[in-house]
Amino acid sequence: MAKFLKITGITLLSAFLVTSGLTGCGGSATTSGSAEETGKLEEARAAAESAERKLSELRTERMKLEEELGTSGTQEQNEEQEQEELLQEDGSN
């Protein structure tokens, strides 16, 4: 979760900086934008896309781990139940 927040924060900060630069808050931007500003925008877009891919990968990994944890818990319950049944059988003999 911390990685997600870090990636999201960096992406939002990058987008904010690029946007403020294009609107004139950070310098003298023209309506068409300079090559430097366009490059920064492309860089921010690429960072955002990368963050989205990473988020998707992390969500997939989380789903797999949660599934494994659920399976593991079910296996433990089954083993405990078998042990109890064996103990009951031994106690009745």
Q: What does this molecule look like?
A:
This protein is mostly helical. The protein has one domain (2-92). The chain has two helices and no strands. The chain has helices spanning 2-23, 35-92. α1 packs antiparallel against α2. The longest helix is centred in the last third of the chain and has 58 residues, at 35-92. It is rod-shaped and about 90 Å long. The relative contact order is 0.09.
Summarize the model shown.
This protein has two helices and no strands. By secondary structure, it is mainly alpha-helical. Helix 1 runs antiparallel to helix 2.
Give the tags.
93 residues; mainly alpha; 2 helices; 86% helix; rod-shaped
Q: Determine the fraction of residues in helical runs and give it as a percent range.
A: over 70%
- Helix/strand class: mainly alpha
Global mean pLDDT = 81
Number of helices: 2
What is the rounded distance between the termini?
Answer: 53 Å
Count of beta strands: 0
The fraction of residues in strands falls at under 5%
Q: What does the main sheet amount to?
A: none
| Global outline | rod-shaped
Low-confidence stretches: none
Number of domains: 1
Radius of gyration based on Cα positions? 27 Å
H/E topology pattern: HH
